[in-house]
Amino acid sequence: MTDIPRRAISRTAKLAALPLGFAGRTVLGMGKRVTGLASDVISAEIQQRTAEQLFSVLGQLKGGAMKFGQALSVFEAALPEEVAAPYRQALTKLQEAAPPLPVASVHKVLASQLGPAWRDRFVSFDDSPAAAASIGQVHRAVWRMPDGTGRDVAVKIQYPGAGDALLADLKQLSRLGGMFRAIQPGLDVKPLLAELRERITEELDYELEAESQRAFAAAYADDPEIYVPAVFSASPRVLVTEWVEGTPLADIIRNGSEQQRNQAGRLMATLHLSAPARAGLLHADPHPGNFRLLADGRLGVIDFGAVARMPEGTPEPIGRIAGLALRGDADEVMAGLRAEGFVSSDEPVDAQALLDFLRPMLEPIAAEEFRFTRAWLRAEAARLASPRSPAYQFSRQLNLPPSYLLIHRVTLGSIGVLCQLEAKAPYRGILERWLPGFAPVS
């Protein structure tokens, strides 16, 4: 594997092969069913082979295909267990690894971004990548400080051609909605892809990412719970930041203790809810590969390529309406949602039915403590996504205003990770501290 494949024909062929391969295996399964093989065995075999092909191709393409795979992976906890099991290993691979960029290409990017004498800026540089993601890979190095000392750093290097590849991949993936509906019937990937497209330009600009990371670092300086590494150097395609040692959340999801899971979940919720108030920013890429649990118990955050600028903090109506719903004030909930555009001004909607629709979603903050679980998320996904469900029918009367789309997507992604962690924490107390308008429940 060299640089990101640049020829559209090559990339399109790889992506186009996905639904064809899936269809072929489905036909194979039908054939085996005729021979008497149990349908659940066929289904598991088809799912596993589809997962292997799907995520192998997404990972090889890097670019937008892998970015989409990472975004999709945080929703793995919502899939039924018999479907989720064959996907889990392939999904977590996307969160932490991808085929590496050749050494010659790495050096070429460093020379173009840091100058021909780029080696002089490092005490040492490891040519083998420590991690790889959707649009770049990370190398470990020792940065030469002005006083001659060295600091352990992470050097993020953007793949050549990443911008064109991102746009091309997302355009192709938008045509594969049917395949993902075969994985999960209620799954609509088009809004996710549209929102990812809007963030591409920002994620490709490492200088902008450095600006966001510095803002987070300033907001959480000396914080006892959240750790944001320092930025040492930034150019459009190379970012040098402090190296962070810790246990990746993907490892904690797989093998972590209950204490680690609960700690990681509580701190992720704290970061998600406090950042708009403290930094005027929302960390908008909540997949496990972006977080580490440090030895001292803090949550290390290592990627700020996707953020939402929220200079006025989280919109006050979110907290106010959630509090009203918990207190059972159906008419005020209706009025608040109508004012924000969630309910059409001329749509007749029963206020009590609306409250009944919302209350299960608020279960995590109805009590002082709550444990997010895959089973809880699967039940909610089934309630909201099945066309036969009354909640699904009711949801068709509601809107998601564009101004809330990103907040909604990031919150769902964060909940997906909390459910993968199966984390128990006092989430209501975190909302009471950080969410504007959220009044304590008596």
Q: Would you kindly provide a written description of the structure presented here, covering whatever features stand out?
A:
The protein has 442 residues and is of the alpha+beta class. The chain is built from 19 helices and 13 strands. The strands form 4 sheets. A 5-stranded antiparallel β-sheet has the order 1-2-3-6-5, sandwiched between helices. A 4-stranded mixed β-sheet has the order 4-10-9-7. A two-stranded antiparallel sheet has the order 8-11. Helix 3 (63-73) crosses helix 4 (81-96) and helix 16 (374-385) packs antiparallel against helix 18. It is elongated, with a radius of gyration of 23 Å. The N and C termini lie far apart (59 Å).
Structure annotation, total helices: 19
Share of helical residues = 55-70%
Strand order of the largest sheet: 1-2-3-6-5
Shape: elongated
- Report the span from N to C terminus: 59 Å
Protein name: ABC transporter ATP-binding protein
Organism: Micromonospora qiuiae
InterPro entries: ABC1_dom, ADCK3_dom, Atypical_kinase_ADCK, Kinase-like_dom_sf, Prot_kinase_dom
Keywords: ATP-binding, Nucleotide-binding, Transferase
Gist?
This is ABC transporter ATP-binding protein. The chain contains 19 helices and 13 strands. It has helices spanning 8-34, 39-61, 63-73, 81-96, 103-114, 162-173, 177-183, 190-204, 206-219, 249-255, 258-279, 316-326, 330-340, 351-358, 363-366, 374-385, 390-395, 402-421, 427-434; strands at residues 122-132, 136-144, 150-158, 226-227, 231-234, 238-242, 247-248, 281-283, 291-293, 299-301, 307-309, 370-371, 424-425.
